[in-house]
Amino acid sequence: MKSIYNIRLLLVVSIIFTSSFAGFSQVAKSTYFMETSKNRSLMNPALRPDQGYVGVPLLSHMFMDVRTNSLNLDNLTFDKGGPERVIFMNSLVSPAEFLSNMGNNNYANLDFNYSLLSAGWYSGDGFWNVDLGLRFHSDANAPKSLFELMKKGFSSEDMVEYDISKVSMTANAMVEMGVGHSRAFLDDYLHVGLKVKALLGVANLDLNGEKLNLTGGPEYWSAKSHVKLQASAPGISAKYKTTEEGDEVFDGFDYDESFKLAGFGMAFDLGGEYDLTHLSDHLGLDGAPAYILDRLKVSLALTDIGFINWSKNSSVSLQSRDTEVRIDPTLTLNDEDNNSLEDAFDEFLDDINKAVDLQEDKERSRRSSLGMNMNVGLEYEFWKDNMTAGFLSSTRFGRYYNMSEFTFSVNYRPCTWFATSLAYSFVHNAFDTFGLAVHLTPSKGINFFIATDYIPPHVNSDFIPTTSKAVNAQFGFTIPLGARR
After folding, report:
1. Residue 428 region by backbone torsions, left for phi larger than 0, else alpha for psi between -120 and 50, else beta
2. Arithmetic mean of pLDDT, 292-321
3. Under DSSP, is residue 353 helix (H, G, I), strand (E, B) or coil?
């Protein structure tokens, strides 16, 4: 029997209607205020480390982030007194018990960032950095009614209707080549940064379920839909399979074996950091206001402002037909013997795929935008050159939904070669977990860093988080370059 704690379940909603096609940030937020961080410029190009560096090839930086608002294992499986937890489709789990865990919209998000080569160095008052890496980002959203359909189905004798519109998914895989520069102004009180990035598109997928209504009883489903699926990849083509009724239905994608780029694009990062320590004299302040102002820094950045153009020869477009489609479903509801979440989703998605009945549209070139990020930071220095407190507001503007998060951190650097940060994040309207970052930064030799924004409070026997709604990890190795600033 397959383990019910399969990590792929965090992404299962991401593959609705696409049985063969198979994140928010590029770096842990707990490192934003750490001057030893060689990668915080990914969140704000104005931020610079205290020393130049060369990344160890293939090991300079790796970051992965997975998050959801409701689709964690604790909400999809239940303890009913047996030897293992049962999935929500089991008859021991009531519809009310399961659906109370679901939000009106339920999303999953995956980010992966892998740096192949990187370097940064000071030149006068300016700081330059270059990098080459791989990036993957995926967002998916499913309305509560989709899970209501899975659990309740059309089990009554009367006709029942479900509106599962607003199902959506976007995914981007690309190679990124970036050149960044930050410069000091106003006697080093203001730092302004700009990064220009060339994007080489590997693959893209965009699913938009504007309308999807299912009506039926226990014997059949009748579907009315307006669903559009666009995808780009080298040598991509849609494939179909024949159902038992003799109909041809969409069955994912095929690709050729040669490697070539499917698209090209460009993006920009803009940012600034302002040190307020000189303003008290200009404003004539004294006492507590001057004391506080003399220890503050503020920062603001907009990243991933850009797009990728996908070529016509590497793109496929499909749409649902403007007719009513009737199918005989195969999903077995409340199966006491089926304890695999993966099998339950696969069976259900196969029925939805037949109901939507995606058909190929004419080929055309297309453009996809990146999800822009906005980071706003406020830093207060408690202990000069040793300890600060930081507040970071992060917002990602997605195509179908936006995500915001607030992070509080205490950043401690007792000596030049060691720094750490303890963070606490406010996400999904609750304080979830602590985060921790550790940097070993001798002025010569090898520097090492490791960080996470969410230390899982509970894991199962396979060390997979069960209650967490977000997990991430970051690590890397760099070689110091030049003298400390």
Report:
1. left
2. 91
3. helix
Report the alpha-carbon distance of residue 294 to residue 279 in Å, rounded: 7
For residue 432, what is the enclosing H or E element?
strand 430-440
Q: Percent of the chain beyond pLDDT 70? A: 85
Torsion of CA 139, 144, 149, 152, to 10 degrees: 140
Rounded to whole angstroms, the Cα distance separating 97 from 93 reads 6
Q: What is the mean pLDDT of residues 443-452?
A: 94
Q: What is the arithmetic mean of pLDDT over 363-382?
A: 89
Q: Select the more confidently predicted residue: 426 or 341.
A: 426
State the Cα–Cα distance between residues 320 and 227, nearest whole angstrom. Answer: 5
| Beta bridge mates, 35 | none
Q: Residue 330: its pLDDT value, please?
A: 62
Q: Exposed e or buried b for every residue in 447-479, given b needs 16+ CB within 10 A?
A: bbbebbbbebeeebeeebbbebbbbbebebbbe
Residues in the chain: 485
CA distance linking residue 321 with residue 356, whole number of Å: 8
pLDDT digits (tens, 9 = 90+) for 152-171: 876 666 778 888 888 888 88
Cα separation, 318 vs 405, in Å, equals: 35
Residue 322 one-letter amino acid = D
253 vs 16: which has the higher pLDDT: 253
Strands (E), 144-189: 160-163, 167-185
Q: What pTM, to 2 d.p., does this model score? A: 0.85
Q: Taking Cα atoms as reference points, which of 290, 407, 483 lies closest to residue 33? A: 407
Distance CA 333, CA 265 (A): 46
Concatenating the DSSP letter of every residue in 460-480 gives -TTS-BSS-SEEEEEEEEEEE
CB atoms under 10 Å from CB of 246, counted, come to 6
Is residue 125 classed exposed, middle or buried when 0-12, 13-18 and 19+ CB atoms within 10 A define those classes?
exposed
Residue 114 vs residue 21, higher pLDDT: 114
**Cα–Cα distance for residue pair 352/207, rounded to 1 Å:** 14
